[in-house]
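Example S7 (structure tokens).
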């Protein structure tokens, strides 16, 4: 297989996974970590790109997430990291009173337009602008994947839910299912190295992305009667749509793709098309196996 080295042409966007803090001391408890800083850059201005690509795959576990949080008519629910508003919209459809927050202003604007019946505002974990015990339930769909201090984030979700109120979260499982690793395989096949470093929280803040790992995180953050289960599904999506999410710079792999010169992006795309063959179900559509973890507990 021909492996292409990284070229010297101008890049499409700045190199990812760099931080001004490198070499400096560890940030204090209220300060964003290097991982948080990378995430802020990654999501900035990408609501449209997310809505038209990866929002679809993240929508799959939403009914189970809302069931786990017992979201129904009259429940006062907070959806954290609401993105383009998928969970907020589904919660509104159940008759809940919905507040949504996100760290990215572009997402806040998008969700506010998409779900006008919800109250959407800017807020960044692990600090939420709500009183202790204000909500009956809190949800966070594929948000823990993007915070630098997951334990502090869960503790903050616990703080804003009332005693007995429920918290439900989803997280991408490790090891990844075959459909999730397709883009990363294409990058490696093109001879491009995926970064380690800032593509994950600092080791002392991280936790295993497994059933016991996520359950342990919730329990150690003060939640009670914690349960965690794997969720598996097949996401059907046009190959061009899946590629577009990465080409727009979404996710760790997307940041790598978008920061490479056009010649290398084309080579990654070529390998993506070759590797997609095993998932193709006809007319350019892929069936991509995915695995997530769904965990819940109460205050
Ligand atoms: C994978 S998207 C999920 C969006 C939405 N929950 C959904 O199901 O489609 C992750 C979202 O979390 C937001 N996010 C990342 N870090 C955050 C933080 N520290 N506080 C609040 N939101 C955050 C991002 O801006 C992005 O909108």
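Recovered sequence:
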């Amino acid at each position: 297989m021909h492996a292409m080295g990284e070229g010297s042409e101008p890049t499409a966007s700045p190199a990812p996974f760099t931080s001004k803090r490198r070499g400096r001391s560890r940030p204090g408890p209220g300060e964003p970590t290097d991982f948080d800083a990378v995430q802020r850059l990654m999501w900035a201005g990408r609501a449209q790109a997310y809505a038209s690509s990866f929002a679809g795959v993240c929508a799959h576990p939403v009914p189970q997430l809302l069931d786990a949080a017992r979201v129904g008519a009259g429940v006062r629910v907070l959806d954290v990291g609401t993105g383009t508003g998928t969970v907020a919209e589904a919660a509104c459809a159940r008759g809940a009173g919905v507040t949504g927050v996100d760290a990215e202003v572009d997402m806040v604007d998008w969700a506010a337009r998409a779900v006008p019946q919800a109250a959407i505002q800017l807020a960044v974990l692990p600090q939420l602008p709500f009183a202790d015990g204000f909500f009956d339930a809190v949800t966070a769909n594929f948000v823990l994947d993007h915070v630098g201090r997951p334990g502090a984030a869960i503790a903050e979700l616990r703080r804003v839910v009332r005693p007995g109120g429920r918290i439900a979260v989803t997280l991408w499982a490790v090891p990844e299912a075959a459909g999730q690793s397709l883009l990363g395989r294409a990058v490696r096949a093109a001879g491009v190295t995926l970064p380690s470093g800032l593509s994950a929280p600092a080791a002392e803040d991280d936790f295993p992305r497994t059933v016991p790992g996520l359950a342990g995180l919730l329990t150690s953050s003060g939640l009670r009667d914690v349960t965690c289960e794997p969720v598996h599904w097949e996401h059907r999506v046009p190959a061009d749509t899946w590629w577009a999410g990465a080409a727009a710079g979404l996710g760790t792999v997307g940041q790598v793709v978008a920061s490479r010169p056009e010649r290398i992006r084309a080579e990654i795309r070529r390998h993506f098309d070759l590797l997609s063959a095993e998932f193709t179900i006809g007319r350019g559509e892929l069936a991509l196996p995915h695995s997530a973890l769904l965990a819940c507990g109460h205050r």
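Notes on this example. The pocket of S-adenosylmethionine is lined by residues 39, 43, 55, 58, 80-84, 86-87, 102-104, 107, 124-125, 141-143, 146-147 (CB under 6 Å).
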